[in-house]
Design brief:
alpha/beta, 14 helices, 473 residues, seven-stranded mixed beta sheet, elongated
Amino acid sequence: MTEVVLLGSGAADGWPNPFCRCASCTAARDSGERRGHSSALIDGTVLIDCGPDVLAAATHAGVDLAGVRYLLLTHDHFDHLAGQALLIRSWAGARTPLDVIGPPAALAACRDWIADTDPVRLRSVAAGDEVTLTGNDGDYRVRVLTAAHTSTLGEPAVLYDVTALDEHGDRAARLLWAADTGPLPAAALDALTGTELDFLLLEETFGRFIEHGADHHDLDSFPRTLAALRSAGAVTTGTRVIAVHLSHHNPPPAQLAEVLAEWGAEIGVDGMRLPLPDEAATATSTPTGRTLVLGAVRSGKSVHAETLLADQDSVLYVATGGTRDGDAEWAERVALHRARRPASWRTAETLDLAAVLDDAAGPVLIDCLGTWLTGMMDRHELWTALERADDGDRAPLTHAMAELNREVDGLIAAWRRCPHRVVAVSNEVGSGVVPATAAGRVFRDELGRLNTRLSVESEQVVLVVAGRTLPLP
């Protein structure tokens, strides 16, 4: 495998959809970005999927398809299979043998486009099959896997696990083409265990539209599939993850690229060439270090924090708010937070954040620092001390503030030395009305100081406003 060219990275309607003026399509159109039907060309020899856009895409990418000897079809949907490509090939007088490989329904859609004299052979495959393809500089071992997607006639679509072998029969590179599919079936995950892919081209069709009910990925299921593949040893720090089959249900391309980067993935771009593992300077990997997420009430800060770790299978979620007897509104908030989190995440309800960070064995998400600070003020009776200070006795307040500062110092030190990915959510409370009470003003001031100190010790700080994220330099 010397070269992989992503001929197309779009979904069935492309991106932008030519009939649409939504913000996503407008941004893509204004930036000059266009994504056609998803397809990949390996070494000029193996073509995976061939929708109507692919022939023009090859020309646009500066490659030809004359050397293609194998066409791998995932299913018969029109954006993956345009049978007229076989007719157009015959018009060029092509005499090189071509094997068209795919499920029976996909092959049936090709037959009317093939003349009896054309050097084209149809080879039916199903999940579980393995075929060997002869290349110019080595063979390709292709495993056919189960997809969570069906064809026009209800036939299961397939995925292709392609391993390029060198002239000695040793592995040179390995690629998984996973479009179209929803979250991978257990059989596919089992088959991919320990494969340590070099390239993963995984579909992400529906973006933030998660109620689509279709067998596709969105920005909720995409990172969870990544987490499952990481747990299975299929995706490693050396795997280049590319999102394909993209549509206008996603945020504008620049925003989507930022979201994907948080999970160690890239946005697919038509015509992009994927360097081989030994040619890539560095593989895209999941970010590490500390991230502080700030925002006002209902700004979307918690959702964003959860998104940052959505590609991790095992996360310790630290809830500092606990439970409140008799508070139905608070109970509803807690229930909504729990429902959003993956079932594989663990939850700890505690205020002892320093101990949690010191004992962490993997990624940690803390939500939130505002309720933690409130708990610390309760623990050290700062509210009572403020009342006594109003009556002229300031000694209790001095003691309570010293204890609070000690707690904050301990948290900052643990935050600094934690070796794992850690994300903390905190309220941004200093931009509004000045609190009417002394207690409110003390809380505002102390949370502002805490946020500032944590910010200094964080690799990333993000402000969330109305659901939009603003990285702070």
